[in-house]
């Protein structure tokens, strides 16, 4: 963290990474990569510290223009492992999209207008997904439980969680950003805070839901293909968390670059990268955090873990 602050203070990269849990997760995966590569002791700690600081500093800064295009607000950055997926989405969307038609312009019949509320739509999507998964794999439904009620509860929990999260995002925008700017001007002049990806969701909520649905469909099809053909030699599972948060953010970025078409096609491209990253990283983390990366990977965590693994192998024996 000290190195990260020094980079912000003395270089043009003015990023302060404020997504708390990611300050733990990135050293975690990078150290795991180093262990897989054969490193240990002080060199391993140095690897984890340096790579983590580089990620916290440079990734939010690299994707800043995509974020500002999507939000119209240059007061903050995104500090979340959606980085590589969002940049893929933005890159593709800019070239194939059409800004004239936005996800937020989609017409919804008046009697269905409540579906424009992201928490309701998200709850419905989770309900349907749990129904499908429960039919395919009944063992996942609690013993003695009812599939429909289980799916209803899962959907309601998801929707309630979204409401709480979005309320916190509004609080963040209205109070924490101004407070941060006052402190930053004294410590790191010109620095911009990098926040968790849900801060994007209020700007283009339709894009988030579209991205989630597209990512789930695309990645599930890809998961079936790679598992059937045994591409990675291990069983890959659909990445629900990454599909919502990382690909939801990627869809917002894609929408900012190419409207509705950009959000859809950009998310499809990001989903391919997501499945590739989770498959490769799961193989490379076979003796450490394989199960963990199968749930939370397919994003910058996988990518930087792979980099850590490569550097660990390069400096093996130090």
Structure description:
- The chain is mainly alpha-helical and 318 residues long.
- The chain has one domain (1-316).
- Helices cover 69% and strands 3% of the residues.
- It contains eleven helices and three strands.
- It has helices spanning 2-10, 22-36, 41-62, 64-71, 83-96, 118-136, 147-187, 205-229, 240-284, 290-296, 300-314, and strands at 15-17, 77-78, 192-195.
- A three-stranded parallel beta sheet has the order 1-3-2, with helices on both faces.
- Helix 9 runs antiparallel to helix 10 (290-296).
- The protein is globular and about 55 Å long.
- The mean pLDDT is 87.
- It is a multi-pass membrane protein.
- InterPro entries: Ascorbate-PTS_EIIC, PTS_sugar-sp_permease.
- This is Ascorbate-specific PTS system EIIC component.
- Homodimer.
- Keywords: Cell membrane, Membrane, Phosphotransferase system, Sugar transport, Transmembrane, Transmembrane helix, Transport.
The total count of strands amounts to 3
What about the largest sheet? Answer: 3 strands, parallel
Average pLDDT, rounded to a whole number, is 87
Structural class: mainly alpha
Low-confidence stretches: none
Number of helical segments with 4 or more residues: 11
| Beginning-to-end CA distance, first to last residue | 24 Å
The fraction of residues assigned to DSSP E strands is under 5%
What gross morphology would you assign?
globular
Instruction: Encode the helix/strand succession as letters.
Output: HEHHHEHHHEHHHH
As laid out across the biggest beta sheet, the strand order is: 1-3-2
The tally of domains stands at: 1
The portion of residues assigned to helices is 55-70%
Radius of gyration: 20 Å
InterPro entries: Ascorbate-PTS_EIIC (IPR051562), PTS_sugar-sp_permease (IPR004703)
Membrane topology: Multi-pass membrane protein
Family: Belongs to the UlaA family.
Protein name: Ascorbate-specific PTS system EIIC component
């Amino acid at each position: 963290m000290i190195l990260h602050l020094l980079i912000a203070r003395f270089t043009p990269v003015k990023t302060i990474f404020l997504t708390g849990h990611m300050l733990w997760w990135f050293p975690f995966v990078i150290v795991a990569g180093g262990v897989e590569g054969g490193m240990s002791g002080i060199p391993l700690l140095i690897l984890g510290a340096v790579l983590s600081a580089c990620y916290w500093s440079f990734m939010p800064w690299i994707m800043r223009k995509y974020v500002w295009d999507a939000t119209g607000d240059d007061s903050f950055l995104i500090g979340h492992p959606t980085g590589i997926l969002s940049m893929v989405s933005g890159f593709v969307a800019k070239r194939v999209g059409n800004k004239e038609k936005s996800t937020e312009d989609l017409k919804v019949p008046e009697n269905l207008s409540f579906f424009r509320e992201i928490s309701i739509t998200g709850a419905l999507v989770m309900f349907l997904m749990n129904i499908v998964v429960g039919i395919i794999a009944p063992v996942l439904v609690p013993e003695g439980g009812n599939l429909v009620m289980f799916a209803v509860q899962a959907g309601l929990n998801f929707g309630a969680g979204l409401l709480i999260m979005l309320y916190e995002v509004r609080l963040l925008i209205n109070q924490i950003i101004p407070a941060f700017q006052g402190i930053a001007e004294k410590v790191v002049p010109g620095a911009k805070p990098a926040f968790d990806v849900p801060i994007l969701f209020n700007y283009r909520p339709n894009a988030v839901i579209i991205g989630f649905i597209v990512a789930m469909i695309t990645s599930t099809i890809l998961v079936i293909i790679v598992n059937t053909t045994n591409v990675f030699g291990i069983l890959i599972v659909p990445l629900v968390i990454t599909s919502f948060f990382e690909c939801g953010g990627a869809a917002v970025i894609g929408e900012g670059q190419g409207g509705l078409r950009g959000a859809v096609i950009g998310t499809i491209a990001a989903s391919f990268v997501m499945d590739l990253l989770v498959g490769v990283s799961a193989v490379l983390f076979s003796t450490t955090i394989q199960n963990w990366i199968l749930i939370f990977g397919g994003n910058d965590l996988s990518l930087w873990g792979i980099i850590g693994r490569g550097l660990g192998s390069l400096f093996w024996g130090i």
